[in-house]
């Protein structure tokens, strides 16, 4: 084998761990990366689907993507029993490849990548679906890594008048509220009934059943749900979905995986045409409503997480780690 055809070794891979990601991309910059991909004309409807394989410890997720200069694949593990062992529920790695010849370029912490890109997707929706002329009252469900990431991403997108944390663990809820206060956001622990006074509700939990009564959500408020990609699991109820203007990352992905929508559809409460638009519609100004004009209905953005998002952020991290080259 000649030097020009030698396969790269593991020593040639650039390793990007969680602390490096925090240094290389801010929450706002990560959201901008995703927005740029959508503005450049990428169509998420064409993205490859996620493959889920049941294993004894939980499930393995395989998420491949290719676009432009890069290709890549995330292998993630979801292990529900890990938290009881003091281990993270989500594990995994991301392999970034050169898009022209598929030579491996970098290996990234897959769980940290997910914790960076998922809040960034939500932040794009928040930028388009919430008013920017006044501080917002946020009700945040969850106390895990995604809750912390979403708090930071929302704070990068909007000024907050108050953060209300709702979690199964009182200790975890108090800790997250305390962290919000270190970011100069007034915060307290609350209950599901607090959604009635919220401008923005963010759900990032492992719940399989609705977290709150959707009838309590105020007209014009925005709800973001990211916790599930399973057709039978949901964080929001049928009452909310039927009332709301619904946005998704991509219709194809939502109709495969978004239990928040598929459960009401199965019960005949809504049809596929209930989805108003996609993230690309929002970013490119094709949304049916302007975020500054109350519509009289709640807005609901449902995210399941898509491989193109991982690829876009992994590519940006790689460029930043290489000094922007």
What is the compact description of this entry?
Helix content is 33%, strand content 24%.
Structure description:
The structure is a single chain. This protein has 10 helices and 14 strands. The protein has 325 residues and is α/β, with parallel strands linked by helices. Helix 2 packs across helix 3. The longest helix is centred in the middle third of the chain and has 20 residues, at 110-129. The two termini are 29 Å apart. Mean pLDDT is 92; it is low at 289-294.
Topology:
Blueprint: E1 14-16, H1 18-24, H2 27-39, E2 51-55, E3 58-67, E4 70-78, E5 90-98, E6 104-109, H3 110-129, E7 136-141, H4 145-157, E8 160-166, H5 170-182, E9 187-189, E10 200-203, E11 222-225, H6 238-243, E12 245-248, H7 251-257, H8 259-266, E13 275-278, H9 279-283, E14 299-302, H10 307-321
Parallel strand pairs: 1-6, 7-8, 7-10, 8-9, 10-11, 11-14, 12-13, 12-14
Antiparallel strand pairs: 2-3, 3-4, 4-5, 5-6
The percentage helix is 25-40%
What would the principal axes of the Cα set say about the shape? globular
What's the overall average pLDDT, rounded?
92
Query: What is the string of SSEs from the N terminus onward?
Result: EHHEEEEEHEHEHEEEHEHHEHEH
Major sheet: arrangement of strands: 9-8-7-10-11-14-12-13
| Number of strand segments | 14
How far apart the termini lie comes to 29 Å
Strand percent estimate:
15-25%
**Main sheet specs:** 8 strands, parallel
List its traits.
single chain; about 325 residues; alpha/beta; six-stranded mixed β-sheet; 10 helices; about 35% helix
């Amino acid at each position: 084998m000649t030097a020009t055809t030698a396969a790269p070794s593991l020593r040639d891979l650039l390793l990007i761990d969680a602390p490096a990601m925090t240094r290389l991309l801010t929450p706002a910059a990560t959201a901008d990366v995703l927005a740029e991909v959508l503005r450049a004309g990428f169509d998420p409807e064409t993205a490859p689907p996620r493959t889920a394989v049941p294993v004894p410890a939980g499930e393995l997720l395989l998420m491949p993507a290719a676009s432009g200069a890069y290709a890549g694949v995330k292998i993630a593990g979801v292990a529900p029993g890990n938290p009881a062992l003091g281990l993270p529920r989500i594990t995994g790695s991301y392999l970034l490849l050169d898009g022209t010849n598929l030579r491996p370029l970098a290996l990234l912490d897959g769980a940290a990548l997910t914790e960076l890109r998922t809040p960034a997707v939500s932040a794009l929706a928040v930028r388009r679906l919430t008013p920017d002329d006044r501080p917002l009252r946020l009700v945040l469900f969850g106390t895990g890594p995604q809750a912390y990431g979403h708090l930071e991403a929302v704070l990068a997108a909007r000024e907050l008048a108050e953060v209300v944390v709702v979690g199964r663990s009182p200790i975890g809820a108090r800790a997250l509220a305390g962290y919000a206060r270190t970011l100069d956001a007034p915060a307290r622990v609350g209950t599901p009934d607090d959604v009635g006074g919220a401008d923005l509700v963010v759900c990032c939990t492992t719940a399989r059943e609705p977290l709150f009564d959707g009838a309590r959500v105020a007209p014009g408020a925005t709800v973001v749900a990211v916790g599930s990609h399973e057709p039978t699991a949901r964080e929001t109820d049928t009452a909310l979905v039927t009332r709301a203007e619904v946005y998704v990352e991509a219709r194809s992905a939502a109709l495969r995986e978004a239990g928040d929508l598929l459960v009401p559809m199965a019960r005949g409460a809504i049809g596929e045409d209930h989805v108003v638009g996609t993230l690309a519609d929002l970013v490119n100004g094709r949304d049916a409503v302007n975020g500054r004009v109350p519509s009289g209905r709640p807005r609901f953005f449902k995210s399941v997480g898509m491989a193109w998002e991982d690829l876009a952020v992994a590519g940006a991290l790689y460029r930043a780690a290489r000094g922007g080259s």
